[in-house]
Each structure stands twice: as C-alpha cells, then as structure tokens.
Amino acid sequence: MKRIKLTVYKEKAILVGIITSKGAKEWIGPTRKRRRQPEDYLEELNRLAQTAGAIVTEQIIQHRTKLDPGYCLGRGKAEEIAQLVKDQKIDVIIFDNDLSPAQIRNLEKVCGTKVIDRSELILDIFATHARSKQAKLQVELAQLEYTLPRLKRLWGHLSRIEGGIGIGQRGPGEKQLEIDRRLARDRITRLKRELAEVTARRQREVAARSNNFTVALVGYTNAGKSTLMNTLTDTKVYVDDKLFSTLDTKTHVWKLKNGQKVLLSDTVGFIKNLPHHLVSSFHATLEEVTQADLLIHVVDAGLPVSLAGRPTVKTHVEAVKIVLKELGCDEKQIILALNKVDETDPLELTILRKHYPDAIQISARNKKGLDELEKKVTGYLAGRQLELDLQVSAGNGKLLAYLADRGQILKKVYEDGLVRIKVRLGPRDLIRAQELGAKKI
Ligand SMILES: Nc1nc2c(ncn2[C@@H]2O[C@H](COP(=O)(O)OP(=O)(O)OP(=O)(O)O)[C@@H](O)[C@H]2O)c(=O)[nH]1
Ligand SMILES: [Mg+2]
C-alpha cells in the first residue's frame, strides 16, 4: 500500500451528528450532573478526528424525525454549515452517521468542501497506523471495498482537492484517482488472494501453538490491552492514548506464578459500529482470538458507568460483545477485567461492582489486581487439566523437561531408575507426553 503524506498541515474539521427520534430517546435520558452538550454525543467522533490529525472547530447536532435521503440533515442546515466552511476555512466535514455516495456528493456541492463519514474516518486511521505487511493489506482491501462504489466521487475531486483525511491519499491513494473500477476490482481480487495466503500461514502458526493454553486480550480501543500485555509479559508493545494504536496481533509468553506458561495475545481494539469491511478484512489478525482457550475482555472503567449519549462502560462492553459474536467467539470463556481503576471514582467502582459482580478490577499501569486476574486464569487452566500419576524413565530428560514446562508438578518420587510423578496436565499435553514415553499408572 502506498502512503503519500502530502503535508503536515492539520486539517480544520466540523463534526456533525444527526439524532433521529430513536437515537434521541437514548440521548435525552435522565442526566445526572448537567445538561448534555453536543460534545457529549460527538465525544467519540471527536477522539477519532483528533487521532486522524484534525483540529475540530465546531460540533453540530441536529434533531430530526428521520434522516434526509438527499443530505442526511436538512437543506437549510447544510447551507448554514456552508457559511461556516467559508468563514472558518474548513477543510473537512465529518458526519457521525453513515452517508450514501449520493448524500456525500450533494453535501459537497452545497458546502464546497470535502465531506466524509465515520467509517471513512476510521479507515483513514487504520491506514495511518498500519505497519506490518498484513495490516497494510487488510486496510487496503477494506478501503478499496469501501471506496469502490464511490470512485466516481473521487474522480470528481481531482480538480479541487489535493489531499488529507479521508480521500484515500494515505491508503491506496492517488492510484484510486487514476484507475477505473475494473482495475480496482482486479486489485481487490489480488489482495484477497494474498490475504488468503497470509491467513493460511497464520492458521498454521496458531495450530502449531495449539498444545499451549492460549489467552487473548480483547476489548474496546484504548481500554489498556497493550499496557496489560506489557505488564504481564514484561514486553514493550506500543502503547498510546490514541484510538487504534495496535493493529497487529502480538503473542508473548506469560509465566504464571505456579511455574506454568501460557501464551498471551494482544489484539486490535474494537469500536461500536465498526465498518463491516474492516471486520471481514481483519479476520486474519483476529485468528488468535478465534482460536484462544480463554479471553480477557479489558474495559476502561474510567468511563461513566451509564450516561445516555456518551461512551460508557456499558456501551463499550456491549459493543465488544457484538464484535465477538460476529467472530463466533461469544461462547468462549471470558474474564471481564475493569481496567484503569486508579483513575476511577470510588463511587463509580462500587456501582461497577454491582453491575459486573464477576469482573476483576485492575490497573494495568499501577499493577493492581493482577494477582487476582492471574488466579482466575490459573483456575480456568486447572479446570481444563487432569490430575495424573505418570511413570517416567529417570533418564528421559526431554520428557521430564516437557512435564515441568507444560504441567504443574505436584509430587515426584525417584525409584529404581524410574520417576513417579503426580502432575496436573491438559489433555493435549498428556498425548504428547505419552508419545515421549510417559506411562499412566
Ligand atoms: N490511568 C491508567 N491509564 C492506563 C491504564 N492502562 C492503560 N492506560 C492508558 O490508556 C491508554 C491506552 O492504553 P493502550 O494499552 O495503548 O490501550 P489499547 O487497549 O492497547 O488500545 P488500542 O491498541 O489503541 O486499541 C494509554 O495512554 C495508557 O497509558 C491504567 O491501568 N490506568
Ligand atoms: Mg493496543
């Protein structure tokens, strides 16, 4: 994927959200401390825009009974925005709602500047953050599939717009402006083929690790998954207070206090209404999640517990559950870890304890609650393990090392060149141990 960064100039953006009667019910729910402001409703879009490098100058909310098919919002409001664009020299208008190619075309005509929607903004962030070959392939595929029906619009831009957020210069880039739909389709076919190869390779890698107990960290973007990974495995994967810092799955060994080792994977964060092209193109990256024996769902507990219209613990938990379901992982064993408790109001913590009685409260940054988390993981591991009495030849160093590595040795007795071992071991490890010469007694 070619990335052409044309300029370091920060684009000025206006955010727009349209609340229909259905959305309004959610948004105008009982307030606790103050009347809610447009900033509340558009808080996440604002974070996304900043992550993409924009400066947000205005946030506009319009209440409507239903979305306008031509402009999404009312024509009059579009003209008001056009005036703002002129007065403030706005570069981009970002809609929270999904826009059809026709709506984008109409809005751009009236407003005289680039218009993008939330999905396109997220795709742009993914394109900027993609580092590995696989992530780049996945993002390029998602971008092309998103832009294919909109290619005409991009052609139309050629004469006016030079670059920036959401018109593809960071992704497949100018290529899109130069090629026709047929070429884009060919490219999609090629990308899918390459991704199929990557996926097959990944599946082989994951299968090769299948003798190990595997745990995957999942959760909303910015919940603290990578920080937890670093703390538990003493590594240094990239952490940032931005959305979608991690786009690749990384796996490291987590040594438990009882001597056992599990494989821990850090994964790409989720977000509500994740553009569906992204979910499908990121399947290869999420192989570790679908194959994991256990998931740790990390949640940012610093968010309000429930406050209609704003990102909350509840909306994040629910959004993650929806993505897990799409991945076919909703039946897996899941530990809920409420992270960042160092920053959470004690009253909110009490409420959270009531809402999520099985959750563990942790601080990945301050290493709080991690023993309890580990105990829970150990518990799952023990539940999957059998307590066995094995007989091993004392000279079989390879087998003895294997048992020490994979199992939890409870007792060891040496007798006439033999070792009798009481060990806790997973069923798959028992098969391997028997292949290496262990005998059940
Ligand atoms: N106060 C506090 N901040 C934390 C804690 N854990 C993580 N953070 C901060 O939260 C931000 C996001 O952390 P990451 O570990 O990058 O989050 P992530 O879930 O991997 O995010 P993505 O990869 O973007 O999906 C960073 O600024 C971290 O320093 C914690 O326990 N307490
Ligand atoms: Mg991360």
Short overview:
This protein has 441 residues and is an alpha/beta fold.
Low-confidence stretches: 1-7, 25-35, 154-162
| N-to-C CA distance | 58 Å
CATH class of the largest domain equals Alpha Beta
CATH architecture of the largest domain: 3-Layer(aba) Sandwich
Query: What spatial order of strands do you see in the largest sheet?
Result: 6-7-5-8-9-10
User: Structural class, from helix and strand content?
Assistant: alpha/beta
Q: What proportion strand?
A: 15-25%
Assembly state of the chains shown: single chain
Question: Could you tell me the mean pLDDT?
Answer: 84
Find the CATH topology of the largest domain: Rossmann fold
Describe the protein in words.
Residues 1-7, 25-35 and 154-162 have low confidence and may be disordered. Strands 6-7-5-8-9-10 form a 6-stranded mixed sheet, with helices on both faces. Strands 2-1-3-4 form a 4-stranded parallel sheet, sandwiched between helices. It has a 4-stranded antiparallel sheet with strand order 12-13-11-14. By secondary structure, it is of the alpha/beta class. It has 3 domains: 12-178, GTPase HflX, N-terminal domain (Rossmann fold, 3-Layer(aba) Sandwich); 210-381, 3-Layer(aba) Sandwich (Rossmann fold), CATH 3.40.50; 385-440, Alpha-Beta Plaits. It is built from 18 helices and 14 strands. The N and C termini lie far apart (58 Å). It has helices at 21-27, 38-41, 43-51, 75-88, 101-111, 118-129, 133-147, 151-157, 174-178, 181-208, 225-233, 276-281, 287-291, 313-326, 346-355, 370-383, 397-406, 427-435, and strands at 12-19, 55-63, 92-95, 114-117, 214-219, 250-255, 261-266, 294-300, 333-339, 360-361, 386-393, 408-415, 418-425, 439-440. It binds guanosine-5'-triphosphate and magnesium ion (MG). Magnesium ion is lined by residues 225-226, 245-246.
